[in-house]
């Protein structure tokens, strides 16, 4: 981890030196939604960093984030407070294009139920949980780097990338979960210019990771006493009522990822068309490891497929970016107790987005539209539970950035969202109904079948100094459920009506 952080810091230090200009490239990028969409897309593969990113820039952000409100899934946090720091940038050294990013986040969750988990594998079938509210503290570090080197007069681009994450998660009240995690992903890409302006590439992926979890009690009476049922720990293995487990509350998850992908680019004049496809298989093995060896607890395989298409056109006074994305994830377990597949998870989404930017002498205007159609399905064979939710959302947005005659710039942005439940299937077993059914499945049924509307507001102001810009950015958003589904589940735990988010950050552009 130290070596990766040093590499990323060194890369970004180079950006500080090479990108110090009064009219910062980074601040222009941040104020142009069409260009920023291209920059985000380019982070999908090293193959794109030459065409999709500016030649030299750096961006640093330090801020706080607050979320609150009960309009969330049971296993999400009802309230969070986060401190965040992040930086990213690109530099060109000779013919080598280098991009790097580093991020740190410290979050206090108050609180969650039935979720002694990280926030990375929320669809997994095997984990521990308790009915009572648990307060979690989380620290997560992320480091990312990519490079691209064209050979033979730009006809043969070769690239590589690395993503690393390490985290620590612990609860501060009984039952006290403690989770450590790491994940390392690597990729390599090779391309070839087929004809003028058309470049195709192939990409390979490999990665591995681990999560180590243990649960203990400061007050031993909570572990087994029937007087404190909310503190008892259960093992969830699938998507049905879990089993009570008072002892041996530990496991280690070994993860291994493999995949392949491809890219296709067409660049001419002020237009760029790019396609990215990726398929990845991940195997997760859950084991109880102790001094005498280990016991296999569960196996879970996940297949992820995604396609991303982007078209960007730049004019002298405007820019347009259009994107289409398809994402699918299919997971199934192998239940070792029954020696068969029990749990299945299927999710997919189609997303389209438009970003249009107009530049004038005194201001930059941004117009955006995003639409998504998504489906999520969970099946548990033992309990015959089948839950499927289909939703569609649309989000229009507008913003303006004003340039003053002096060194001060400021801007404002607004957006609206309408998220509608289109269809659902809810077959939930009525046998042995207890905490998990009432507080997770019934609760999330109402959450997933509610129509939701909301909006957001953002303002920012920055000042140009010698070689860099510094400013303040504030955002807030609010979402509210318009109504609940009319179906009644006995003793169901209902979600809250609304959800609020606000964040403030100091931002620096080099």
TrEMBL record:
Residues 1-19 form the signal peptide. InterPro entries: DUF6850. This is DUF6850 domain-containing protein. It comes from the Bacteria. The keyword Signal applies. Residues 46-510 form the DUF6850 domain. Pfam families: DUF6850 (PF21012).
């Amino acid at each position: 981890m130290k070596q990766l952080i040093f590499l990323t810091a060194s890369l970004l230090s180079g950006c500080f030196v090479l990108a110090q200009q009064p009219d910062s490239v980074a601040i222009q990028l941040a104020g142009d939604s069409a260009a920023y969409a291209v920059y985000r897309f380019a982070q999908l593969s090293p193959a794109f960093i030459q065409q999709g990113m500016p030649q030299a820039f750096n961006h640093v952000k330090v801020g706080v984030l607050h979320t609150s409100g009960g309009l969330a899934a049971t296993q999400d946090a009802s309230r969070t407070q986060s401190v965040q720091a992040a930086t990213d940038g690109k530099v060109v050294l000779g013919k080598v294009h280098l991009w790097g990013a580093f991020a740190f986040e410290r979050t206090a969750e108050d609180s969650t139920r039935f979720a002694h988990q990280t926030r990375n594998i929320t669809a997994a079938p095997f984990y521990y949980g308790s009915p009572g509210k648990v307060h979690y503290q989380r620290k997560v570090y992320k480091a990312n780097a990519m490079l691209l080197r064209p050979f033979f007069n730009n006809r043969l681009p070769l690239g590589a990338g690395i993503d690393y994450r390490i985290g620590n998660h612990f609860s501060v009240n009984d039952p006290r979960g403690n989770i450590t995690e790491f994940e390392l992903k690597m990729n390599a890409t090779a391309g070839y210019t087929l004809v003028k302006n058309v470049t195709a590439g192939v990409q390979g992926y490999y990665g591995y990771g681990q999560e180590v979890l243990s649960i203990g009690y400061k007050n031993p009476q909570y572990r087994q006493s029937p007087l404190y049922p909310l503190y008892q720990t259960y093992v969830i293995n699938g998507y049905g009522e879990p089993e009570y487990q008072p002892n041996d509350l530990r496991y280690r998850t070994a993860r291994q990822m493999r995949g392949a992908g491809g890219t296709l680019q067409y660049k001419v004049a002020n237009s760029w068309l790019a396609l990215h496809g990726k398929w990845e298989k991940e195997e997760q093995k859950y084991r109880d490891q102790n001094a005498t060896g280990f016991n296999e607890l569960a196996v879970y395989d996940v297949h992820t497929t995604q396609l991303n298409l982007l078209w960007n056109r730049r004019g002298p006074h405007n820019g347009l970016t259009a994107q289409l994305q398809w994402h699918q994830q299919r997971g199934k377990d192998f239940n070792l107790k029954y020696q068969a597949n029990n749990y299945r998870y299927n999710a997919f989404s189609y997303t389209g987005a438009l970003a249009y930017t107009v530049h004038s002498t005194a201001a930059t205007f941004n117009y955006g539209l995003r639409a998504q159609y998504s489906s999520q399905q969970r099946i548990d064979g033992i309990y015959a539970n089948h839950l499927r939710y289909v939703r569609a959302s649309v989000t229009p947005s507008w913003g303006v950035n004003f340039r003053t005659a002096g060194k001060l710039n400021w801007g404002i942005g607004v957006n609206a969202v309408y998220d509608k439940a289109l269809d659902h299937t809810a077959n939930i077993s009525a046998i042995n109904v207890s905490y998990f059914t009432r507080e997770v499945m019934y609760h999330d049924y109402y959450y997933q079948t509610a129509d939701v509307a909301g909006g957001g507001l953002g303002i920012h102001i920055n000042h140009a100094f010698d070689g860099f810009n510094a400013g303040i950015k504030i955002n807030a958003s609010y979402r509210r459920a318009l109504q609940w589904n009319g179906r009644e589940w006995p003793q169901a735990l209902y979600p809250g009506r609304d959800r609020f988010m606000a964040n403030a950050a100091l931002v620096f552009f080099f």
